[in-house]
Design brief:
The complex is a heterodimer. Chain A is mainly alpha-helical. Helices cover 57% and strands 0% of the residues of chain A.
Chain lengths: 77, 352
């Protein structure tokens, strides 16, 4: 899955987000309506789609979708 | 991995009891309406049953057990009572012994407690079937449940809206048929801080500050008396371990997921359970849910789900079931077993 697809698909997992709001450089924790439950949504999405399990540190240390994607690629190795 | 097989046990009946009082997520005003909506969609809990202050978990288990004992008229035949819970009546004595007396069971009866949470039903089945399989003891009563709402704080949004109360009873007989039950049971105490009540026992005894409220982060305040829950740690644990445990069990037992009628998972959180289901590649129709109306009922969630969602099937059919419990500890385990014509019953707690 490319980073652009990742951003688009993750966007569809979030509620009430205008299409195109989330791009690779979006600080996902600053998206309107962000809550800690979104972290769980992201972890579940990544697990199912990449077979990679993100942990709390991964979420804390990342800001953008690109940061997340890099962590996923690193953990996929 | 601790794989084990037991034989000669048969589930005869399951009864579950929940309090009458309903708390709806939409009435939990410690979080915004948007958060309520997201919580319902993600975690899957629309409402939960909450016991009154003076109702103990053992009262709910007692009601469940009484209904089965009355139906089968078997008070004099019960050889073992096991109470699996993390909300006992007292620090001591063990609640199972009190229930032996309340249920008017004979004194020639083994009674002991097991201190486990969400994995408790599967562990309880393993202990009960081990005790029954020699044939020296013929009938066991497995009482499983929790009153988790005693430990959660209304001002802690990370735990309060998750838990519901329930107490169950499962009547299990020795049978001459081999009736193998296959278990895979696991533990990892390094996860202790992910769900914990730190104070009030011998490690951190009661002190004068036990009820002092502390603010941790927005929406999360609690006292030392309360349950601490780190949702992300638990989520990670469940994603990493549960499907692996189940797949290993199928491998070791030489049984097939395709021949399993239902996968009854602990009702932890819809997002966790759906992730596990997808990893197992199991159709949604084979994974029953009760979390929407009862919340996370700890060790009671598997038998409660069976009583709530599978009554007709259990009573009329031969089924192969996978049950998997996972959580606090960390402790987790799965069992594959066959059932035939199990009677089930779902009660609302009646103080009378």
């Amino acid at each position: 899955m490319s980073i652009e697809e990742f951003a688009t698909q993750l966007e569809s997992e979030f509620e009430d987000v205008e299409p195109g709001t989330i791009t690779p450089d979006t600080n996902y924790k600053k998206v309107n309506g962000w809550s800690s439950m979104h972290s769980l949504i992201i972890i579940a999405f990544v697990d199912v789609n990449f077979n990679v399990i993100l942990n709390g540190s991964d979420i804390k240390s990342s800001e953008t979708i690109r940061d997340l994607y890099s962590i996923i690629l690193e953990k996929s190795k | 991995m601790a794989y084990l097989k037991t034989s000669h046990s048969k589930i005869i009946a399951i009864s579950s009891c929940v309090p009458k009082r309903i708390e709806k997520t939409t009435d939990y005003h410690h979080i915004s309406s948007n958060e309520q909506e997201l919580f319902i969609k993600t975690v899957g809990i629309k409402e939960r049953r909450v016991a009154d202050d003076d109702v103990a978990c053992s009262d709910l288990c007692f009601a469940s057990a009484k209904s089965l004992i009355d139906k089968y008229n078997c008070a004099d035949e019960i050889d073992i009572v096991i109470f699996v819970s993390q909300s006992p009546d007292y620090y001591l004595p063990a609640t199972s012994i009190l229930l032996q007396n309340r249920l008017k069971l004979k004194k020639d009866c083994i009674a002991f407690d097991i201190n486990l949470g969400c994995s408790g039903y599967v562990y309880g089945l393993s202990v009960m079937s081990n005790l029954l399989q020699s044939g020296q003891l013929k009938k066991g009563l497995l009482l499983v449940g929790d009153k988790s709402t005693t430990s959660t704080n209304y001002k802690d949004k990370s735990s309060y809206p998750l838990f519901g109360d329930a107490g169950t009873a499962t009547l299990i007989d020795y049978t001459k048929d081999s009736n193998d039950w296959h278990f895979n049971l696991q533990s990892d105490g390094s996860g202790k801080n992910s769900i914990i009540i730190e104070h009030g026992q011998s490690r951190n005894p009661f002190d004068k500050t036990l009820d002092d409220m502390v603010d941790f982060e927005p929406g999360i305040s609690r006292s030392k008396r309360n349950l601490i829950l780190n949702g992300m740690d638990i989520f990670n644990f469940a994603l990493k371990e549960v499907a692996t445990n189940i797949n290993t069990l199928y491998e070791k037992s030489n049984l097939s997921k395709d021949n399993t009628d239902y996968f009854v998972l602990h009702q932890a959180n819809k997002l966790i359970n759906e992730s596990v289901r997808k990893k197992l590649k199991v159709e949604i129709e084979k994974v029953p849910y009760s979390i929407d109306v009862f919340g996370n009922t700890s060790s009671a969630s598997i038998p409660l789900t069976m009583c709530y969602k599978m009554k007709e099937e259990l009573q009329t059919k031969k089924l192969t079931l996978l049950m998997s419990g996972f959580g606090v500890g960390f402790s987790w385990g799965s069992v594959i077993l066959n059932t035939e014509n199990i009677y089930t019953n779902l009660l609302e707690y009646d103080r009378a």
